[in-house]
């Protein structure tokens, strides 16, 4: 039973690492599509589609954090981090729709930095801010 629980916890942690990596990648791709938005005719469509994908990746991060926490009964801290990212993503979408680039752009940079800060320790050791137990 304990071995099965440990294997389930490991799968949850791996899923959490993948979710953080996906979120970080989508935020980076949003920066690329923002540059295309300024220079090409199809940039607006790419940025719009990318926003939906990034928001979905943030929701996946919350799901992965819950699934990583529940089997082992560890700390719910990753859920708080994931929920914070989802709140920032929601704010980012609202600011983008409202065309407030003076806050939208710096918030995107902040989100990318925070996502990298969550990703690095999670990938290195399976613990840290995003994968803490």
Please, could you describe this protein's structure?
The protein has 4 helices and no strands. The protein is mostly helical and 133 residues long. α1 (2-39) packs antiparallel against α2, α2 (43-72) runs antiparallel to α3 (77-97) and α3 runs antiparallel to α4 (101-125). It is elongated and about 50 Å long. The protein starts with a helix and ends in an 8-residue tail after the last helix. 29% of the residues are buried. The mean pLDDT is 86.
SSE diagram, text form:
Layout: H1 2-39, H2 43-72, H3 77-97, H4 101-125
Helix pairs in contact: 1-2, 1-4, 2-3, 3-4
How would you summarize what this structure contains?
By secondary structure, this protein is an all-alpha fold. 86% of the residues lie in helices and 0% in strands.
What is the helix tally? 4
Helix content class: over 70%
Helix-strand string: HHHH
Compute the CA-based radius of gyration: 16 Å
Count the E strands. Answer: 0
- Percentage of residues in DSSP E strands: under 5%
């Amino acid at each position: 039973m304990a071995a099965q629980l440990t294997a389930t916890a490991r799968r949850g942690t791996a899923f959490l690492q993948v979710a953080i990596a996906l979120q970080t990648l989508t935020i980076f791709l949003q920066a690329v599509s923002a540059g295309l938005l300024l220079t090409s005719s199809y940039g607006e469509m790419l940025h719009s589609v990318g926003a939906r994908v990034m928001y979905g990746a943030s929701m996946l991060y919350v799901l992965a954090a819950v699934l990583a926490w529940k089997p082992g009964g560890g700390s719910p801290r990753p859920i708080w981090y994931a929920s914070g990212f989802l709140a920032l993503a929601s704010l980012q979408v609202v600011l983008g729709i409202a065309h407030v680039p003076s806050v939208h752009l710096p918030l995107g940079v902040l989100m990318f930095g925070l996502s990298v800060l969550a990703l690095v320790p999670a990938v290195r050791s399976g613990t840290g801010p995003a994968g803490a137990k």
